[in-house]
Design a protein that fits this description.
Blueprint (H helix, E strand, L loop, with lengths): L4 H11 L3 H10 L4 H19 L6 E8 L5 E9 L2 H4 L2 H17 L11 H17 L5 H18 L5 E2 L2 E5 H12 L4 E9 L3
Antiparallel strand pairs: 1-2, 2-5, 3-4
Length: 197
């Protein structure tokens, strides 16, 4: 199949991928734009996964003060070089994360950060709820897993849907940032202040 410039342009606009990557994706997927998008996404995720072990010791401290001056956030987002830290893409990502933290109030960065005692207490509560609802055996385990997933989504930054676009999680935004900027990106820590809280 002949891959036209218009097809490449359309895929580029939809994905933000480079011209050569778009051509390769369309050739691989025999001109199917939807399959090509999925192919590019998988390629980006694979590239991001390779970078996740690299040391991210540079970066920025981003800040956000809500318009009513009652909520403020400081967040440290790390990357590998000061060159990337100065790019508009990295600054924008840091700002979006800070704004999200102000609005969504996560308690942890990732599920691994949840203390074992907190996790155990939550699991026991979910188990008691499932038993009270008349579930037994495997149904209880399944209910606990579902509730645990929701618990992580509510309390862990990387699992939360972005407040300004709920189709994407903060973790997916960071992965996209890794793909776009070609460096590992890590949220190191954050602090959220709320007046009177």
């Amino acid at each position: 199949m002949v891959i036209s410039a218009a097809m490449i342009k359309q895929l580029r606009e939809a994905t933000g991928a480079g011209v050569l990557d778009c051509r390769k994706a369309l050739e691989t997927c025999e001109g199917d734009a939807e399959k090509a998008k999925a192919w590019l996404k998988d390629k980006g995720l694979a590239a991001a996964a390779k970078k996740s072990d690299r040391v991210a010791a540079d970066g920025l401290v981003g800040s956000y003060i809500h318009h009513n001056n009652r909520i403020a956030v400081l967040v440290e987002v790390n990357c590998e070089t000061d060159f990337v830290a100065r790019t508009e893409g990295f600054k924008k990502l840091t700002q979006e994360i800070a704004k999200h933290i102000a609005m969504a109030n996560p308690q942890y960065i990732k599920p691994e950060d949840v203390a074992a005692s907190v996790l155990e207490e939550a699991k026991q509560g979910f188990q008691a709820e499932a038993l009270a609802a008349g579930k037994s055996g495997a149904e209880v385990d399944e209910a606990v897993e579902q509730k645990l997933g929701k618990f992580y989504q509510e309390t862990c930054l990387v699992k939360q849907p972005y407040v300004l676009n709920e189709k994407v999680t903060i973790g997916e935004m960071i992965t996209q940032g890794i793909t776009d900027l070609k460096e590992n990106i890590v949220v190191r820590r954050f602090v959220r202040y709320e007046l009177g809280a």
